[in-house]
Every structure is written in structure tokens, then in C-alpha cells.
What does this fold into?
Amino acid sequence: MCNVILADAWFYTWALLPLLIFAARIMDVSLGTVRVIFVSRGLKYLAPLVGFFEVLIWLLAIGQIMKNLSNPACYIAYAAGFAMGNFVGICIAERLSLGVVLVRVVTQKDASPLVDKLKLCDYGLTCVDGHGTHGQVKVLFTIVPRREVRNLVMLIKEFNPDAFYSIEEVGFVEKGIFPLKAGRADLSLSKLFRFFRKGK
It folds into this structure.
């Protein structure tokens, strides 16, 4: 009987408890990443809600650490959970793909093929003439949903692998022309988050 109790205590102390701390740390760090994204997107109602659960889970994890200061497995689980939480948080951020970005393309080549291709794909754009270090250039501006950045970059590189382009965060955009490639789930998600956006 004593051996069974000791075995159960050992399993809880050195296996189950560290595993629970590891899982809790993944959740709270992931929620922290999502909260920062919500704050940057102006989702003033969702950000505090996520922050509440983030801190609650963190308190539970740190509480178990404080109760088991002599257990190095808990320290390792806490640190490993933090590291893994960052990875999971970034993956979640990539999946959410919230917001829009400004893509600026500068090229010395004739930009007509790229302009035609972007118009064909329903990208709204502005094209202006410019003067660079090595002569005349074309500067293209387009604002796209973040989820479309990969497709747009592929089009740019297909047109000119050496083209210079930059991508910048856009806080708010009104009107405009955007590619109609989002699925129903993406559109519903965008509408849901728009309700929680500040000033809406």
C-alpha cells in the first residue's frame, strides 16, 4: 500500500504536475500573443477578455511553482512552456491574419504586366512615376488583407525577382478595392472582429 502511495506521489510530483505547468504556460503565453494582436488592431472589448484568462492561467501556474520550489522539473516545465507558448502564439497569429497592410513595389522594369495581373486578380492599386538612384522607376501601391500578402509577393517575384517591395501595417482603411478570394469563414471572422473594434 505504501509503495502504491509513494509511486502515485512520485508520478504527480515529477510527471503530472510539470506537464500541467507546461500546458498552462503554453496557454497563457499564446493568449498573451493574441491579446497583443487584439490591442494593436483596436479590438478593445476582446483584448481585456483574453487578458483576463491569460493572467488567470498564469496565476495558477506560478502558484504551483511557488508550492513546489524544491522541484526542478517544475522550473524546466515552466521555461519550456514559455518557449513553446511563443511558437504556438505566432502560429495562431499567422492563422488569424487580422488587419490589412500596405505593399509598396518599386521597379525599373515596365510595370504594365504586373499592373494588368493585379487588376485581373481584383487588387486595387495606384501606380506613379518616380526617380531612383539609377534612373526612372515605377512605384506601385496596394492595400490588401494580411492573408493575401503571400499571394501578392508571389506575383511580384514572378514579374520581377529583383523588384524592391516593402510591407507596412495599416491601422484603418475605408472603401477601396480588395481581392474577393476570402472564403465564407474568413469573411464571417472579419465581420465578428469588426464588431469588437474600437469606435465601431
Q: What stands out?
A: The radius of gyration is 24 Å.
